[in-house]
Amino acid sequence: MFDHYCSACEQRQLIAPSQVTSIDNTDQGIFLSFTCWCGAEGHALTGRKAHDLVAA
Q1: CA distances to 11, 23, 26, 29, 52 from 34, in Å
Q2: Cα distances (angstroms) measured from residue 3 to each of 13, 18, 37, 56
Q3: Beta bridge partners of 39
Q4: Residue 21 phi, psi dihedral angles, 5° rounding
């Protein structure tokens, strides 16, 4: 589980594993696609490599 701010419903939502539609390991980090509780599609980039990009 992770939290995500949804720009469609303008709320911070807790995203459950069942809402994740895909996980891709990329050169920039782990790219997650998911469906918010409101039905909007969302995306998040996470993982060590993603954090290194932000810190650079």
Answers
A1: 15, 9, 17, 16, 23
A2: 5, 14, 12, 24
A3: none
A4: -100, -25
- The pTM (predicted TM-score) of the whole model is 0.80
Greatest distance between any 2 Cα atoms in the chain: 34
pLDDT per residue over 14-51, tens digit each?
999 999 999 999 988 999 999 999 999 999 998 877 76
Cα–Cα distance, 9 to 22 (Å, whole number)? 21
Give the β-pairing of 11-15 and 41-46: unpaired
